[in-house]
Specification:
The protein is an alpha/beta fold. The chain has helices spanning 2-7, 14-21, 28-47, 55-64, 77-86, 93-115, 122-132, 136-140, 150-167, 170-184, 191-203, 207-211, 215-237, 240-246, 253-270, 272-282, 289-294, 298-321, 334-343, 351-383, 392-407, 418-427, 464-477, 517-523, 527-534; strands at residues 413-416, 433-434, 455-460, 481-491, 494-506. 62% of the residues lie in helices and 7% in strands.
Length: 536
């Protein structure tokens, strides 16, 4: 059937065949990526209409407002990217949704840079299409956070390393040092990628030639030099990011084995659509896999060692140290296996299959936009989110109105529940500085009890720990105003569910400083929520 279709393609296939003819001409891949970014940004705009951005995205924007070499919970790359983006684009939902998908688009582009080293034409496109069948580049990417930034930095670093290993040139050695440093300031989980580079080079047959030249040592020095400002920040600020990361290392042998099992099963599930598609594409040729593997070229063999390292090293670490190991932490490395599967085959892939996978990927995207997105929006308008995204904008607007009515001045600082504080900073027209209750002693509000422009804090009524914190603050501060109001979700003019918000406002002229010790009293009860959010 495949051969017959390629000889005499149906009329509807011909535009897609002309597009595939242009892969090596240079415009087919950019067109695919632009369409991918546009369609999935539209999906996000529809699916989350009437809802706020994910708290992780709001956190990235909040952190990026103040340039630093590090932040309390995570390395700084996500904040830097958000700051650079909003220096050009407006501070709005659609803008940051576009940012998230552009990040995914760059990730796929960097994957294509790797693919073109080993394959041409249809196989390059097929790698991208198969990756588009995984959840990593749409649903995982839309939560722009420390995990999502690795989607682009991992393939970029891998491409640079492959080039450095092959050419031994100083240029690529510097490039891999810079790219791996960028991945590390994205999230420390990238240490597994860097270690995989080293191990892959050590077991590769060309290891002697590589390690006896200057390239790896130039990369090492460059990487440390680029990382040095962040290392200095860690040394002078108490290394809070390490403390936060180590909070995930609290399991025993039994729980670690459970984490490893779920980690592997999660990755298998994420790759299931790719696996099924490849079975149909390869068919009986799957039996050629041993021969194809044995004949794998040196570059692909190096990539294979890297891929194995990115799975084995986290597993061994989890078992040894007792760390959490959600599978979503490794989604950015799935491209390694797809490149190996497609580019490692020595037989050509019929266009019949490439066109079919294109149609499937396009059909899924259109179904998501036209069917799934409106259903999701309507459902969430009635049933909401646990974190309360439906109410972010309304709560921020009402808080700003209440504050202006009370003080006649712009709101400059906001605290309380983490997600609500980020949302108030983002959606309020005053864009106050946010420091949630868990980070009173480390984030940007004043610490001294001197007259300040005042502050506000807000919680949902059903958030017990946050409300206890606010009661403590009211008792200690004295001069605060407590308000309560109800916010209602709305979707395209249709009213949705409601939720109650409690607000504390300390007007200008009081002590103005949010008490710090409250964070220590109440943060312990909130840490599980934070950890689960970090794993999302």
């Amino acid at each position: 059937m495949a051969e017959r279709s390629d000889r005499a393609p149906a009329r509807w296939r011909r535009p897609l065949l002309r597009w595939l003819d242009a892969v090596e001409a240079g415009w087919a891949v950019p067109l695919l990526l632009v369409c991918f970014v546009a369609v999935w940004t539209l999906y996000l705009a529809i699916a989350y209409a009437g809802s706020g951005l994910h708290p992780d995205t709001l956190e990235a924007w909040t952190l990026g407002r103040h340039f630093a070499w590090g932040y309390h919970k995570h390395p700084p790359l996500m904040g830097w990217v958000a700051a650079a983006w909003t220096a050009v684009f407006p501070v709005s939902d659609w803008s940051l949704q576009l940012m998230a998908m552009v990040n995914a688009g760059f990730a796929l582009y960097f994957v294509d840079l790797i693919s073109r080293q080993f394959a041409a034409g249809d196989k390059r496109i097929l790698v991208l299409l198969l990756l588009m069948l995984t959840p990593a580049y749409q649903f995982h990417a839309q939560r722009f956070n420390a995990n999502a930034v690795l989607l682009a930095t991992w393939p970029l670093a891998t491409w640079c390393f492959l080039r450095a290993f092959e050419t031994r040139s100083a240029f690529w050695a510097v490039a891999v040092g810079c790219a791996t440093a960028l991945a590390m300031v994205g999230k420390y989980y990238s240490v597994f990628l860097v270690a995989s580079f080293a191990l892959a080079a050590l077991v590769h047959p060309a290891r002697r030639a590589y390690f006896t030249c200057a390239s790896p040592w130039i990369s090492l020095v460059t990487g440390l030099a680029v990382l040095s400002p962040h290392i200095y920040w860690l040394a002078t600020t108490g290394a809070s990011t390490f403390t936060y990361a180590l909070a995930h290392a609290n399991g025993d042998a039994v729980s670690s084995l459970g984490e490893v099992k779920n980690f592997l099963l999660g990755l298998v599930a994420a790759m299931s659509a790719v696996a099924v598609s490849w079975v149909f594409i390869a068919g009986r040729r799957l039996k050629q896999f041993p021969a194809d593997f044995a004949a794998m070229n040196p570059g692909l063999r190096l990539l294979f060692y890297i891929a194995i390292g990115t799975i084995v090293l986290p597993v061994l670490t989890s078992v040894a140290v007792g760390t959490d190991l959600p599978s979503l932490w490794a989604l950015q490395g799935l491209f390694l296996f797809v490149v190996l599967i497609v580019c490692g085959t020595r037989y050509p892939i019929e266009r019949f299959y490439t066109v079919n996978v294109t149609v499937i990927a396009a059909g899924i995207a259109l179904a998501a936009v036209l069917v799934a997105a409106p259903i999701h929006a309507v459902y969430r308008n009635s049933y909401g989110y646990e974190e309360g995204r439906n109410f972010y904008a309304q709560a921020a607007v009402e808080l700003t109105r209440e504050w202006r009515e009370l003080t006649g001045k712009p709101l400059s600082a906001v605290s309380g529940d983490e997600a609500l504080a980020f949302a108030a900073a983002f959606y309020s027209s005053d864009h106050p500085h946010a420091r949630p209750l868990d980070y009173q002693s480390t984030w940007g509000l004043p610490r001294k009890a001197t007259p300040k422009p005042g502050w506000a804090a807000l919680c949902f009524r059903d958030q017990d720990s946050c409300n206890r914190w606010m009661e403590w603050v009211a008792a200690q501060e004295g001069h605060v105003v407590r308000r309560e109001f109800t916010v209602q979700a709305s979707l395209w003019g249709w009213p949705g569910l409601t939720r109650e918000v409690i607000v504390l406002m300390a007007p200008p002229g009081g002590s103005g400083a949010v008490p710090e010790s409250a964070a220590d009293d109440f943060s312990a009860s909130r840490r599980p929520t934070e950890q689960s959010r970090a794993q999302q």
